[in-house]
Amino acid sequence: MLENPKRYTITAALPYTNGPIHIGHLAGVYVPSDIYARYLRLQGKDVAFICGSDEHGVAISMKAKKEGITPQQVIDKYDGIIRQSFLDFGISFDNYSRTSAEIHHKTASEFFKKLYDNGDFIEETTEQLYDAKADQFLADRFVTGTCPKCDNPEAYGDQCEKCGSTLNATDLINPKSTITGETPILKSTKHWFLPLNRYESFLKEWILEGHKNDWKPNVYGQVKSWVDGGLEPRAVTRDLDWGIDVPVEGAEGKKLYVWFDAPIGYISSTKEWAAREGKDWEPYWKDADTKLVHFIGKDNIVFHCIIFPAMLKAEGSYILPDNIPANEFLNLEGNKLSTSKNWAVWLHEYLQDFPEKQDSLRYALTANAPETKDNDFTWKDFQARNNNELAAIFGNFINRVVVLTNKYYNGIIPAPYEFSEVDEQTLVELKAYPAVISSSIERYRFREALGELMNVARLGNKYLADEEPWKMVKENPARVQTQMYVALQIASALAILSEPFLPFTSSKLCKILNIKVNNWNLAFENWNLTKAGHQIGQAEILFAQIEDAEIQKQLDKLEATKTANKVENAKTEPQKEIITFEDFAKVDLRIGTIIEAEKMPKANKLLILKVDTGIDVRTIVSGIAEHFTPEEVIGKRVTVLVNLAPRALRGVESEGMLLLTNNAEGKLVFVNPDAEGVINGAMIS
């Protein structure tokens, strides 16, 4: 660990521009990195907080094909949405760039060329999966198949999302092209590889020995597993029509692999920022007095802890990350967040339903952050944290202090008289909190730090509840002046301490108290808190209650998504063999009405029905008893195959067949194309 660095370079994982940002991204990467950057700035540190859109992933090409537009149109659309979401939620990047920018193409090309000229790559002709029908090599995400490690039948060519294993497309069992559905063939192609095996001893010394005690166990454990398992060369180029051209002869039609070019995006974004601000970018990446910290999700651990450091080591002039505090995954209502399945809370939609409640979400996501294990976001928990913690503890304390100050002193902070033992003890405790919260933030324990922030609000509430100034304001006004002065010191401290976590609340609180957030100085005596004679403003609600109806609306939205996914993912049966018109003409279908129904004795699946077919009333035995009660079907109009040969079922002769199908949830429904959940291609039987 670097002690007392001169400057900090903080990077947040580059989001793919194939969709908007959701709460999983915010909880895993962007809120914790923003807390850290804001905290350091409050201490007057030299900070470069860097991010940008990752625009060359194969996910972009897939999205473009699906929507029938160009990759450029995809990235332009989602880059705008993502940027706005970050602005709306107060993510305070010093620079947010794009990997499609000219400065990035130049930086990535120069980085590749230097390693190429140094002989750091291996050039190999290998067999890669090729879709003959589409006439193209298949990048990893254009292939799905069965994972060789956990038998998940829907693994991608680069990763199994079920077991988390990193794969090569050729590892998949029964691979299929996502473009045409065809089984790909193997075809020879030339590529360049980074020989990670050359860096095993360096990685063991740097991480396994050097960071054994200061990196998070989940990060260290994953890295150790990879290194102990033996590293192999990894391709840095691919056959694709979207991305950065490989800048060497003989590489026509090939692009830099996205995992190679994307992390270089941190460097190019820093260059862009430095040029705009009139700074020199190199110290932020090449000075040993710079602390480099990568904030990522666990699916990026291998790339940031093994591959990117190997690239930096090979280049030779860059510093290595001091820490990579990766988070685990956040689930939503018990299910994995998924962009493709629309199982998410999108940030731009959240603000439509909960305007001006950015901090409520920032708070809930930090309090439940997946720092050491996967966690679950539920709307009920979100509501409880807003109402029972933010509103009832933080907001309630501030409201009482401000209302009483305006009521008793017309908003002018009173001068304290003699401090009691309780006053002294409360102020001593208050003065300890900046160092306590700092310690948690410095160790990337943001949940713990947020808990300590709330303890400051609890301290204030307890102080007021115990002292009860409203009961003694008439008989002992001098004592109340001291009490209100102490309470206002706590309120002022909250305005500063909450800024990294709840920036919008901090801003409102500063406006109410008529102060500015100054630096987070561990020597509390140097804090410029409110002084006697200072005029404050009027109270306003910091955290409005969230009602049950608002939460139910979100739950209903998710339920609708679940139903839509079932319909979309419902598999249709293949077409049966061709029949002639003469064959079909033999079928006699009639509309009928069920006039009687009863359960078949000792048979769970069968109903005995009397059906008026218009030509007669006949008995039909139907296997629908697990889906319908006799009472439900009486009076139903149905489609009947009337010229089916009679058949005895449990001693009852059945003279025909009712036509039914299954909806997306597998429930039988009588044939009616307008019935809910009946999809195109549903088989009638």
UniProtKB/TrEMBL annotation:
<keyword id="KW-0963">Cytoplasm</keyword>
<feature type="binding site">
    <location>
        <position position="163"/>
    </location>
    <ligand>
        <name>Zn(2+)</name>
    </ligand>
</feature>
<dbReference type="InterPro" id="IPR001412">
    <property type="entry name" value="aa-tRNA-synth_I_CS"/>
</dbReference>
<dbReference type="InterPro" id="IPR014758">
    <property type="entry name" value="Met-tRNA_synth"/>
</dbReference>
<dbReference type="InterPro" id="IPR041872">
    <property type="entry name" value="Anticodon_Met"/>
</dbReference>
<comment type="function">
    <text>Is required not only for elongation of protein synthesis but also for the initiation of all mRNA translation through initiator tRNA(fMet) aminoacylation.</text>
</comment>
<protein>
    <recommendedName>
        <fullName>Methionine--tRNA ligase</fullName>
        <ecNumber>6.1.1.10</ecNumber>
    </recommendedName>
</protein>
<keyword id="KW-0547">Nucleotide-binding</keyword>
<dbReference type="InterPro" id="IPR004495">
    <property type="entry name" value="Met-tRNA-synth_bsu_C"/>
</dbReference>
<keyword id="KW-0648">Protein biosynthesis</keyword>
<feature type="binding site">
    <location>
        <position position="147"/>
    </location>
    <ligand>
        <name>Zn(2+)</name>
    </ligand>
</feature>
<dbReference type="GO" id="GO:0004825">
    <property type="term" value="F:methionine-tRNA ligase activity"/>
</dbReference>
<keyword id="KW-0479">Metal-binding</keyword>
<dbReference type="InterPro" id="IPR009080">
    <property type="entry name" value="tRNAsynth_Ia_anticodon-bd"/>
</dbReference>
<dbReference type="Pfam" id="PF09334">
    <property type="entry name" value="tRNA-synt_1g"/>
</dbReference>
<feature type="binding site">
    <location>
        <position position="339"/>
    </location>
    <ligand>
        <name>ATP</name>
    </ligand>
</feature>
<feature type="short sequence motif" description="'KMSKS' region">
    <location>
        <begin position="336"/>
        <end position="340"/>
    </location>
</feature>
<dbReference type="GO" id="GO:0000049">
    <property type="term" value="F:tRNA binding"/>
</dbReference>
<dbReference type="InterPro" id="IPR029038">
    <property type="entry name" value="MetRS_Zn"/>
</dbReference>
<dbReference type="InterPro" id="IPR012340">
    <property type="entry name" value="NA-bd_OB-fold"/>
</dbReference>
<dbReference type="InterPro" id="IPR015413">
    <property type="entry name" value="Methionyl/Leucyl_tRNA_Synth"/>
</dbReference>
<dbReference type="InterPro" id="IPR023458">
    <property type="entry name" value="Met-tRNA_ligase_1"/>
</dbReference>
<dbReference type="GO" id="GO:0005524">
    <property type="term" value="F:ATP binding"/>
</dbReference>
<feature type="short sequence motif" description="'HIGH' region">
    <location>
        <begin position="15"/>
        <end position="25"/>
    </location>
</feature>
<feature type="domain" description="TRNA-binding">
    <location>
        <begin position="583"/>
        <end position="685"/>
    </location>
</feature>
<dbReference type="InterPro" id="IPR002547">
    <property type="entry name" value="tRNA-bd_dom"/>
</dbReference>
<dbReference type="Pfam" id="PF19303">
    <property type="entry name" value="Anticodon_3"/>
</dbReference>
<keyword id="KW-0694">RNA-binding</keyword>
<keyword id="KW-0436">Ligase</keyword>
<dbReference type="InterPro" id="IPR014729">
    <property type="entry name" value="Rossmann-like_a/b/a_fold"/>
</dbReference>
<keyword id="KW-0030">Aminoacyl-tRNA synthetase</keyword>
<comment type="similarity">
    <text>Belongs to the class-I aminoacyl-tRNA synthetase family. MetG type 1 subfamily.</text>
</comment>
<dbReference type="GO" id="GO:0046872">
    <property type="term" value="F:metal ion binding"/>
</dbReference>
<keyword id="KW-0067">ATP-binding</keyword>
<keyword id="KW-0820">tRNA-binding</keyword>
<dbReference type="Pfam" id="PF01588">
    <property type="entry name" value="tRNA_bind"/>
</dbReference>
<dbReference type="GO" id="GO:0005829">
    <property type="term" value="C:cytosol"/>
</dbReference>
<dbReference type="InterPro" id="IPR033911">
    <property type="entry name" value="MetRS_core"/>
</dbReference>
<feature type="binding site">
    <location>
        <position position="150"/>
    </location>
    <ligand>
        <name>Zn(2+)</name>
    </ligand>
</feature>
<comment type="subunit">
    <text>Homodimer.</text>
</comment>
<dbReference type="GO" id="GO:0006431">
    <property type="term" value="P:methionyl-tRNA aminoacylation"/>
</dbReference>
<keyword id="KW-0862">Zinc</keyword>
